[in-house]
Structures
1.
Amino acid sequence: MRIKNARFVVSNSRVAQCPNTALPEFAFIGRSNVGKSSLINMLTNRKRLAKTSGKPGKTQLINHFLINESWHLVDLPGYGYARVSKKDKKEFQQYIRDYFNERKQLVNAFVLIDIRLDPQPIDLAFMEWMGTQQIPFSIIFTKADKLSARTIEPTVTKYLNTLLEDAWEEAPLHFVTSSTSRIGQDAVLAYIEKLL
Ligand code: GTP
Ligand code: MG
């Protein structure tokens, strides 16, 4: 898919205020600092469409972007941001749950995972919650440029095996990406196009 145009529409803290259109949408979610906003910029070939930051907690709202005048891409705040108490670290914010439970336009969510990290309890809990809510999602491994090419595949396999041992019968569809080296752009866009 070619991205001909991409523009910011609106930011909201509540799902009820999100754009009232029937356009299909795709959401990007994951821990704070995993690279959601950077990935959105990479996918759309825009440098500053979504705001990025070296400090976690940059994206605080539900942000809608209109792509090719025909679908929405949604940048969500990270979960597991360390400013909350230790107990709450394993929780994800209520409005993230509300978004996924209520947003009928959602076609697929992409759960972003930092490829360098061992499986984190909060990510496993989040994917399990998505499964119980029957919300379709795929995994996007981010920051693949931080690993050597030959360690990418075994790292991904190890991660997916953890999911299979944990709660999953089948590993979710997954993509390997880097916002700096741009790997994965074609594969993710082709998948979105297929679902549209
Ligand atoms: P929040 O909005 O705080 O939840 O974070 P986010 O998930 O949107 O992350 P963001 O895109 O702001 O990126 C966080 C940091 O990771 C920034 O310093 C980025 O430059 C860096 N980063 C993101 N993607 C990549 C990548 O593919 N490779 C490398 N090397 N760095 C990346
Ligand atoms: Mg962000």
2.
Amino acid sequence: MSSLAPSPEDPAVSMTRVEKVFDSGRSGAVTALTGVDLAVAPGEFVSLIGPSGCGKSTLLRLVADLETATAGTVAVFGKSAHQARLDQDYGIAFQSAGLLPWRTVRANVELPLELRKVPRGRRRERSDELLAMVGLADFSAARPHQLSGGMQQRVAIARALAEQPRLLLMDEPFGALDEMTRERMQSELLAICERTGCAVIFVTHSIPEAVYLSDRVVVMSPRPGRITEIVPVSLGERDEDTREDAAFFSAVTAVREALRGHPDHSAHHASSTVRGVDLR
Ligand code: ADP
Ligand code: MG
């Protein structure tokens, strides 16, 4: 990977002919991803959607340097994924909130700032701001086990945003939230992206969520996991009425058809070891 200084023109993420094969010992090799080409521009919002097992989480984990590609290249702001991790170029909010149970809510949110040796006063200011944003100002002294799953997820999102990263990697972050909270978090997330100019790769099972949030929706299919279609969404600035726009519905339909265009017949007939299609 090049060690040249990153330039402002570098894509947030650039994946070229990426393949990821898991060698699962006796059960053989699983091609989680193959032939993945994807570039995400700075400030762009891209969602990944597709049936369970199509490699969405694997794709994010490659960008986050939590897995290594078997072939192809993954660059983050023009650097190797590894260097980007060392430089803390991105924030992560994954499915399970992953909070430290012995720390208070506030201390969880402040963790990345502590690691960066941000002074206490500034940390406090920032965690106040973030906790207010996710509606948890009154819970700063609570421990994670005292919160509902949805509240824990909001803490994780606040933590991912603590350092105002240029890139956010989110794996079904709103899956555990009730519908009202979920829509509020979606709007908040877009407002944050607007403010900070951060790029997002966002995994979701929800077609309307993907459409509402994204500049482009990346549709994937499994066995082997690959990108089958990329649906551009041009809805302009989102507001209260966006979800009722005709343009919104036609984008939802376009994504649904892209998903249907590549039905995973094998999943319906395969053994119980294969995770079925669970698009909701
Ligand atoms: P998704 O997030 O789209 O549901 P994943 O990225 O989790 O899909 O998984 C893609 C495929 O790779 C699946 O078949 C899964 O079983 C397999 N897989 C994921 N992680 C591992 C691993 N650590 N070892 C072996 N196989 C894995
Ligand atoms: Mg997943």
3.
Amino acid sequence: MCDMCGCAVGSGDVEVRSVDSRASHRHNTQALVEVLTRLLHQNDEAAAHNRAHFDRHGVVAVNLMSSPGSGKTSLLEATIDAMGHRYRIAVIEGDLETENDAQRIRAKGVPAVQVVTGQTCHLDAQMVHEALHTLDLNTIDLLFIENVGNLVCPAGFDLGQQANVVLLSVTEGDDKPAKYPVIFRTADLVLLSKADLLPVLDDFSPDAATAHVRRLANAAPIQTVSARQVDSLASWFEWLDGLLAARHTAEATTR
Ligand code: MG
């Protein structure tokens, strides 16, 4: 994938596949690790800066992560329909190409900034920061950051968000949390999405998916939802209400 985030290098688990020029590969790998360490440090600084923006303006920022096609944008459309009259919502969209998702959100009357990442397979804090400066944070209660569809790299980059939500659609394997543990460990909430398809699928078990998340020692709530069935989204809306209420409580106690 991208050459920005070190997809090819896992922490403490560097694999050099060529048997030729081993010394050269070790040297290159060391240099790469140093570059990546510096890059992640810079990202953490930018994320702290974003968090300060959110705190100053009382914005709740939620980072949505999943595979491509798991229904993130559809979930946001349904959420705007149901909650847009109560909260001032805005969206930052991350995709490799196109402005399609931002256009879908804008069609709902909600401000949306499209970040086109090109070769980069995740959003980083600096990209989010640049997007923030095109929004009026004084007019936003709830900011969704729809990350690039990818179950690997987005997990490594703090954006300054208050919460991580990871979607796993029922059209994917219920063992995805076992295969992609890092991102599912970061989840403050897991949504098993596209659940309207469950009756016609015999190879996805919500219980099995839940068990895989629990084996990662993540006790986050897990909800089975469908953007096409608004009744199934009640717990998701309540969870968002809870985040906003906690934000208001925190603000009241620091005044
Ligand atoms: Mg999308």
